[in-house]
């Protein structure tokens, strides 16, 4: 079939080996063999004239190494070989596939470290990198943080060690970051709060320590978070969406405290007592304020009115004073009005 451009035979019950003659289909652009029962090695005889852009052989029983000849496929954009039995390392020859946008090699038996070309200029277009459930070792390479278009980074269930690189905050478009089930140590970098597009953050089942950074509350799109089974300490940040998740995502951190965990922080009891004392003091102050107002009114009222009621001579003098004052005010007003009328007449 020399003119065939797309071959879809996925999700069947096909078995046996994949014939090497597939590599001779010069016009083939899409090869989808996923979810079958193919076994043996993947074809090794790819050539430079191939126009293939998508290779999907996921969910089979393929074994052996990922062919180095696949590095010849300069037009390859999507490579999915996940959930097979591929071993050894990721071939360095794949750095020649400079338009790669998606690499999924999860669920195999790959080992070694992540090659330096992933994160280099030849792989700058990567949007998805899934290497989960393999046997990769070493540190998480800092060059991965150069992948400015990366939306999904899944390195979970491997043997990575060391600290999470600070540069990871540069992955501002990343929506899924899964580093769970490794041997990572150190603190959760506060710069993760700069990854404003994060919807999923899974750092569970590592050896991370220190406090949960307050900056995580700025991840407003975060819908899935898991920090369980680490060595995190201190209070879960107050007043943030980190307290809206279920307590299970914090379990396995014996020194972590605060809501939604049932474990109270050491300062909580002291804070409760202080607030209670302050509340009592405020209540007492308020009560004495009203008492003093009432007493002041009573003393002032009866100090004047009571005296007038008891002493007749004072009462007459008081009302005579009011009467005289009223007459003086009335006279002053009449004089002012008369003078004003005279001035208007002269005008």
TrEMBL record:
<keyword id="KW-0677">Repeat</keyword>
<comment type="similarity">
    <text>Belongs to the RLP family.</text>
</comment>
<dbReference type="InterPro" id="IPR001611">
    <property type="entry name" value="Leu-rich_rpt"/>
</dbReference>
<keyword id="KW-1003">Cell membrane</keyword>
<keyword id="KW-0472">Membrane</keyword>
<dbReference type="Pfam" id="PF13855">
    <property type="entry name" value="LRR_8"/>
</dbReference>
<keyword id="KW-0812">Transmembrane</keyword>
<feature type="transmembrane region" description="Helical">
    <location>
        <begin position="287"/>
        <end position="310"/>
    </location>
</feature>
<protein>
    <submittedName>
        <fullName>Receptor-like protein 12</fullName>
    </submittedName>
</protein>
<dbReference type="InterPro" id="IPR046956">
    <property type="entry name" value="RLP23-like"/>
</dbReference>
<keyword id="KW-0325">Glycoprotein</keyword>
<dbReference type="Pfam" id="PF00560">
    <property type="entry name" value="LRR_1"/>
</dbReference>
<dbReference type="GO" id="GO:0005886">
    <property type="term" value="C:plasma membrane"/>
</dbReference>
<keyword id="KW-0433">Leucine-rich repeat</keyword>
<dbReference type="InterPro" id="IPR003591">
    <property type="entry name" value="Leu-rich_rpt_typical-subtyp"/>
</dbReference>
<dbReference type="InterPro" id="IPR032675">
    <property type="entry name" value="LRR_dom_sf"/>
</dbReference>
<keyword id="KW-0732">Signal</keyword>
<keyword id="KW-1133">Transmembrane helix</keyword>
<keyword id="KW-0675">Receptor</keyword>
């Amino acid at each position: 079939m020399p003119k065939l451009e797309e071959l879809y035979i996925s999700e069947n019950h096909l078995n046996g080996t994949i014939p090497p003659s597939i590599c001779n289909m010069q016009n083939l652009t899409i090869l989808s063999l996923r979810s079958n029962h193919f076994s043996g090695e993947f074809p090794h005889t790819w050539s430079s004239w191939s126009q293939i852009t998508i290779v999907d052989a996921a969910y089979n029983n393929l074994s052996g190494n990922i062919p180095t000849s696949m590095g010849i496929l300069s037009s390859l954009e999507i490579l999915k070989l996940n959930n097979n039995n591929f071993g050894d390392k990721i071939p360095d020859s794949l750095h020649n596939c400079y338009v790669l946008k998606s690499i999924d090699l999860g669920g195999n038996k790959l080992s070694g470290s992540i090659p330096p070309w992933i994160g280099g200029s030849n792989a700058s277009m990567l949007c998805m990198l899934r290497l989960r459930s393999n046997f990769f070792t070493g540190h998480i390479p800092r060059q991965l943080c150069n992948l400015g278009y990366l939306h999904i980074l899944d390195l979970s269930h491997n043997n990575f060690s060391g600290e999470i690189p600070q540069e990871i905050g540069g992955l501002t478009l990343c929506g899924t970051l899964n580093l769970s089930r490794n041997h990572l140590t150190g603190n959760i970098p506060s710069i993760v709060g700069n990854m404003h597009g994060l919807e999923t953050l899974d750092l569970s089942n590592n050896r991370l320590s220190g406090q949960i950074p307050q900056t995580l509350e700025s991840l407003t799109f975060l819908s899935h978070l898991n920090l369980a089974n680490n060595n995190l300490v201190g209070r879960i940040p107050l007043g943030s969406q980190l307290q809206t998740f279920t307590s299970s995502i914090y379990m396995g951190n014996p020194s972590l405290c605060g809501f939604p965990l049932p474990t109270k922080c050491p300062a909580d009891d002291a804070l409760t007592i202080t607030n209670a004392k302050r509340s009592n003091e405020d209540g007492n102050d308020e009560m004495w304020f009203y008492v003093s107002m009432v007493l002041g009114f009573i003393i002032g009222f009866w100090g004047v009115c009571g005296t007038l009621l008891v002493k007749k001579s004072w009462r007459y003098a008081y009302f005579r004073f009011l009467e005289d004052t009223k007459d003086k005010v009335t006279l002053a007003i009449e004089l002012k009005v008369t003078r004003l009328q005279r001035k208007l007449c002269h005008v």
